[in-house]
Amino acid sequence: MTDKRLTTSWGAPVGDNQNSLTAGSRGPTLIQDVHLLEKLAHFNRERVPERVVHAKGAGAHGYFEVTNDVSKYTKAAFLSEVGKKTDMFIRFSTVAGELGSADTVRDPRGFAVKFYTEEGNYDLVGNNTPVFFIRDAIKFPDFIHTQKRHPQTHLKNPDAVWDFWSLSPESLHQVTILMSDRGIPATLRNMHGFGSHTFKWVNEKGEGYWVKYHFKTQQGVKNMDPAVAAKIAGEHPDYHTEDLFNAIENGDFPEWKLYVQIMPLEDANTYRFDPFDVTKVWSQKDYPLIEVGRMVLNRNPENYFAEVEQATFSPGTLVPGIDVSPDKMLQGRLFAYHDAHRYRVGANHQALPINRARNEVNNYQRDGQMRFDNNGGSGVYYEPNSLNGPKEDPSSKIAPFEVSGEADSVGYDENDHYTQPGDLYRLMTEDEKTRLVQNFVDAMKPVTRKEILEREVGHIYKADKEWGQRVADGLGISIPTVTAN
Ligand code: HEM
């Protein structure tokens, strides 16, 4: 028997929560039942807009522990010494589907980590793939339109998907990873995570390094057979969500090791391709993995909406010692995320418990919808001031960097979209190649326009002739003559 009294949202005791106030036992309901009005009205407002991408997700709390000294590369306080532990929160997601869509679909998986460091939050908003489909933010809304529903039929549209990809050959590397066995992870615990973009680390002396992040699953990479995945998608669409929750609930805490690749700043001018191009990976022979630490997930959210749905991650949520690169996708993302958060959650989203920094937040921002903390109280609310308000710290300024060139809308210097996907194909075992070809064929078969199929097969053929031929054979089409010659 609970000793808690049911109250209205304004804290008054509720007299009856089962029977509305009516005029007589069969009479109409009275508008005077303010508890009923409030209950119905609040219910109508229970949903916030779902994320425009990555809508379906699962989250968990945990910690990050430094296991190797990387302080010569970055002054980030949470990475300053071996053994240091920092609380973190992660959200895994699929990309294209809606909030209620199935977990076991062929799709990249989001891998968004929030570190609650002593110098503010640091978000690493990556995927389970080291590359992306496109390399300029200006193409993102069009790309995502092709992954969503057709405006008339409200159905997924394979013609749009493959039309866009075949006209954007920079996508081939990521499409290959997506069509490989890794396109459907067995669980969220059995996949790697990547920052994907190139970021910049800066040390105490102000020296910079380009950096790429790799989270390696300690559960081993395991993938799901597409036929099994299709069956599970129908029977248990929340399969991955449940698996993660149960593993943590049972004390089987999933763990990832974090490694980085470090590139000296000057190498970016001479490396054999643009190291800021997110459709490419850096060779690990050139830039080997350096261990940083381990991430352990050991606590489930207490409340899904409060902690997972309201979580807001942004690649622009950075701390001193970690900065961005000129990657044109990353640059666009610096705008997109907090803009989405202000629309989806509200202007004060960063003050919500799941998003709030664990250190003190002091600034001159005030007011806005749902301002639920003390709003700075009676403290000074402008700067400059002579009232001893919070002051900037010049040691936290970003390291200066040079820019040059004429302002123009220009593409990347180099357009080799084929070497890296071709190498990936050639690295696969015979069985993996066969499954890759089959996955391409199965995904492309529903396309109705032959020219789209031919254009995509032409790209695959350029990456590897045998691979292109096998996909063409599977689709019953020929290699377009312009490519074959
Ligand atoms: C979520 C935009 C590229 C990973 C989102 C959201 C937007 C967005 C608007 C929803 C945010 C929210 O409502 O909370 C963009 C744009 C991109 C881009 C404009 C390109 C210019 C990428 C790339 C990656 C990525 C390259 C991975 C390397 C994610 C993840 C989430 C997400 C993991 C879900 C975060 C969460 O769990 O809350 N993106 N995105 N996105 N994006 Fe991107």
Global morphology: globular
- Give the proportion of residues in helices: 25-40%
- How much of the sequence is in beta strands? 15-25%
The CATH topology of the domain at 57-142 and 182-355 is Catalase HpII,  Chain A, domain 1
Binding site for heme: 337
Family: Belongs to the catalase family.
Protein name: Catalase
Organism: Terribacillus aidingensis
Description:
This protein has 485 residues and is an alpha+beta fold. Among the domains are: 57-142 and 182-355, Catalase core domain (Catalase HpII,  Chain A, domain 1, Beta Barrel), CATH 2.40.180; 419-484, no CATH class. Helices cover 28% and strands 16% of the residues. It contains 14 helices and 10 strands. Strands 1, 2, 3, 4, 5, 6, 7, 8, 9 and 10 form a 10-stranded antiparallel β-sheet that branches. A hairpin with a 2-residue loop joins strand 3 and strand 4 (120-127). Helix 2 (140-147) runs antiparallel to helix 3 (158-167) and helix 12 runs antiparallel to helix 13. It is globular, with a radius of gyration of 25 Å. The N and C termini lie far apart (81 Å). 36% of the residues are buried. The model has no long low-confidence stretch (mean pLDDT 97). Bound molecules: protoporphyrin IX containing FE. Protoporphyrin IX containing FE (HEM) binds at residues 51-54, 57, 91, 93, 110, 112, 125-127, 132, 137, 140, 196, 311-313, 329, 332-333, 336-337, 340-341, 344. Keywords: Heme, Hydrogen peroxide, Iron, Metal-binding, Oxidoreductase, Peroxidase. Its cofactor is heme. GO terms for molecular function: catalase activity; heme binding; metal ion binding. The active site is at 54, 127. It holds the Pfam family Catalase.
